[in-house]
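Regression test case RT-17, inverse folding.

Input:
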């Protein structure tokens, strides 16, 4: 008999998309899934068959051109503050859903403090998932990069703010500190995790969870005779019109067919006249484009990296955040791509793409990684682990 499983997640593409095949599989197995998300993700979530629980996010919209990338030294503090503010905005909206229709299991994203607090406050069994490299007492992004995490002047430290917020909503701060989900799903392969040997027990490397995206239009190359290069810097810190103009210049007059996914923060008109072999769009069906691509210029988000490896596409990495920095380092260590300086000239970018696609070492590494990646169970394992946590 099916059970009620609730998903609460951060509203970004990089967090939502990896969970959609899992939701589809749980529904196929007979469970009822309710998924809290924002209007921009509602169509994608509804396509799985889940019930959409709508809420308004306090995070900047993907069309917000005023969003600026934090200074590197302040990044982790800024992100912690942003997701605590998100919990302040969303917990009052989400908690009534689960009091009125109590789930048998809460599945929440690592960045969703509201989901965690609801699970603790309502004493729900819970599973946590994340799509970026995990931390433990042996390794973290901050320690790896030598970043110091300090509160802002005049602000209490993050733990004090969290304790105060939890107590204000009737959740014992000691219970928050002691809380351990029944399982932690890492939606990527073990080979992408630094110090992977130190993660065990509740941590499960499921590998990528991918599947059809019926909410996206299909894509085929306009000119099948040209090699395809995809450029995408994700959906958050992607307002970089100067970089995109460099890409247009790099591939103008070349044999390449360039596809630039510039996000909603950049107006394609800012890039100037486009040659026939360069396509610019806010978003593209990335799985379809990678199926035809010979190279991928990427911000090194975990989802894009895994999709590229699955398709056997070498990468030039241009990370925008610390978690993307460590991903890019891992890609380079594994031999699946090369770093690209964000200040690269058009000539340097085009040369880097050409060198990347003729690098036999990269080709051999990708073949090995692709085989290893495709051996991961992915969605069936993630669904089975969630089912095993049901009371």
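Golden output:
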């Amino acid at each position: 008999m099916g059970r009620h499983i609730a998903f609460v997640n951060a509203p970004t593409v990089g967090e939502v998309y990896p969970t959609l095949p899992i939701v589809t599989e749980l529904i196929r197995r007979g469970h009822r899934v309710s998924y809290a998300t924002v209007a921009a993700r509602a169509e994608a979530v509804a396509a799985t068959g889940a019930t959409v629980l709508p809420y308004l996010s306090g995070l900047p919209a993907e069309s917000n051109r005023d969003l600026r990338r934090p200074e590197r030294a302040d990044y982790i503090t800024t992100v912690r503050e942003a997701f605590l503010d998100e919990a302040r905005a969303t917990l009052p909206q989400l908690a009534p859903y689960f009091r009125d229709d109590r789930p048998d299991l809460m599945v929440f994203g690592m960045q969703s403090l509201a989901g965690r607090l609801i699970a603790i406050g309502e004493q729900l069994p819970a599973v946590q998932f994340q799509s970026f490299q995990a931390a433990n007492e042996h390794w973290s992004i901050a320690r790896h990069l030598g970043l110091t995490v300090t509160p802002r002047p005049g602000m209490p430290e993050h733990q004090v703010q969290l304790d105060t917020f939890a107590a204000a909503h009737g959740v014992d701060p000691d219970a928050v500190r002691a809380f351990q989900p029944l399982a932690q799903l890492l939606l990527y392969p073990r080979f992408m995790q630094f110090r992977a040997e130190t993660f065990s027990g509740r941590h499960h490397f499921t590998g990528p969870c991918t599947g059809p995206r019926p909410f996206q239009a299909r894509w085929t190359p306009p000119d099948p005779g040209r090699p395809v290069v995809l450029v995408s810097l994700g959906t958050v810190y992607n307002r970089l019109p100067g970089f995109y103009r460099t890409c247009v210049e790099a591939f103008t007059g070349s044999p390449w067919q360039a596809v630039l996914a510039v996000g909603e923060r950049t107006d394609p008109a800012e890039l100037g006249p486009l040659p026939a072999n360069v396509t610019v769009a806010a978003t593209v069906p990335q799985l379809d484009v990678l199926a035809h691509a010979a190279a991928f210029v990427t911000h090194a988000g975990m989802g894009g990296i895994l999709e590229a490896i699955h398709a056997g596409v070498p990468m030039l990495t241009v990370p925008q955040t610390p978690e993307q920095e460590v991903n890019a380092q891992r890609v380079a260590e594994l031999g699946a791509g090369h770093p690209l300086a964000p200040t690269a000239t058009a000539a340097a970018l085009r040369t880097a793409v050409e060198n990347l696609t003729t690098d036999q070492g990269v080709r051999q590494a990708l073949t090995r990684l692709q085989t290893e990646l495709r051996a991961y169970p992915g969605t069936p394992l993630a669904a089975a682990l969630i089912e095993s946590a049901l009371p």
